[in-house]
What we know:
Blueprint: H1 10-25, H2 27-32, H3 47-65, H4 72-93, H5 107-113, H6 123-134, H7 136-153, H8 159-173, H9 178-184, H10 191-219, H11 231-242, H12 248-273, H13 279-287, E1 293-295, H14 297-315, E2 329-333, E3 341-344, E4 354-358, E5 366-368, H15 369-379, H16 384-393, H17 400-405, H18 409-425, H19 432-457, H20 470-480, H21 485-497, H22 503-523, H23 529-538, H24 544-552
Parallel strand pairs: 2-4
Antiparallel strand pairs: 1-5, 3-4
Helix pairs in contact: 1-3, 3-4, 4-11, 4-24, 6-10, 7-10, 8-10, 9-10, 12-13, 12-19, 15-18, 15-19, 18-22, 19-20, 19-22, 20-21, 22-24
Amino acid sequence: MTNDTRAQTPIDRIAEGWVDELVELSPTLGTYIGRNEVNDRYGDYSPAGHEARAEAARRTLAALEAEAPVDDVDRVTQMDLASELRLDIELHAARWHLRDLNVLESPAQDIRQAYDLMPTGTADDWAVVAKRMAGVPDAIDGYLETLREGIQQGVVPAARQVHEVAAQARSYAEPGGFFDELVGGVPEATSGLASDLSAGADAARSAYARLARFLEGVLAPRATDVDAVGRNLYALHSRRFLGAEIDLDETYDWGLEELARMTAEQEAVAREIRPGASVAEAIAFLEQDASRKLSGTEALREWMQRTADEAVAALGGSHFDIAEPIRTIECMIAPTTSGEIYYTGPSDDFSRPGRMWWSVPEGVTEFDTWRELTTVYHEGVPGHHLQIAQAVVNRGQLNSWRRLIAGSSGHAEGWALYAERLMEQLGYLEDPADRLGMLDGQRMRAARVVLDIGVHLGKRRPDSHQKWDADYALEFMRRNVNMDDAFVRFEVNRYLGWPGQAPSYKVGQRIWEQLRDDVERREGDAFSIKEFHRRALDIGGVGLDTLRSALAG
């Protein structure tokens, strides 16, 4: 990372303009990157709103392609932003927005999740929260209009996703649920502000109740019973999540091989923990070890924070350059109960630091440190926090698009899995129990490659000549993970409704490791792993084809 400030170019100005346009079109994205001036509103989720974004993408792409890059930074920006804009246009043409509904990442969740990152430190902040809540009904109505258009055109989501999201919407609509808890967290408020917050929460709950009724009563009877999206649409989503084009059939076969390799490695570690033990027996043994348990969410949060801070201190300067603003990470217990563990990047000025979130399911009060040590490395340092925050801090070289928005799931999640394996190679998972926890996650990610491609492409099952379906997917996942069954069901539903995203983790890791090995072969004795990490992360978030091209120079 250099402290030099690079002069802004015409391509930079186009990228900056695209960020500004995205923030106006999608204020929830603005909230995510710390553009708080749009926190009081939502974008247009109606068909007209989607068409406006597609037209903006076409216009920006034309302007971008008309410019000549002036340096390598420009070449990366032009390549990656153009690729992203083309994907946006292709997805719009494929009418994906008309069926955009799944259990994890669709407008139904986006509208609610905006509040997780909004400032709430002052009365003025809470007034903004109240105003945005008052806009939930219009946001939901726009989304309903889009889903109705999908019904008219015969482009509908799978019934499985409709029923699951309806249940989510009902939970948001419940008295005492998310919105009431949100406004109940205001320590002091004037009568006017309290009234606005109460009215906003009522409006938001009512809107989500309306969404739930529509999903169950109108969309569900017209939804498809077919979970698979087919090869053509799946290939488009795979490119979207990887920022790279891959051979899906070769990747399916590789996924089977990788799953077998992870299983064998996990079985060997299980025998280190207890001679002759199976994986299940080793896990049962570890689950009885009180020294490896945390009790209560506050103990979990404190352990996450301590572990994350120790990783920053240990790795900064040895294997990574960690700038001062990046040395702060906040570990948080999320306000939801879905079971997710995730990372949110810092705001552009680092007034809101990068955060690691744990959404603890209801009733879960104990946590196994051997399972989760690798998770902290995945979400924190050297995983997502180092990767994403380093791009944010590199203001002197990268435009806002490159620092705050650009990237792919394959780049981000692939790096995070690469980081897990790196920590093992550096000796931070010497305890076989911690290594078993890491391999548990790696095995799950390999299984997802096979499951996701198998279901959506109608591949032959590994155990027979029959094709994959949802029932077999659930059975397959149960055999390959050690998780609560409710979480396994949620995960499988996620894969069925969000095609191409789940494989991007393990496939992204594969590509990251290939790129590192390619650079090491090319540089020979001059190769430095620290320099490779610095150079790769200084590029910022990009698609993996763009990353490959940038590192080849």
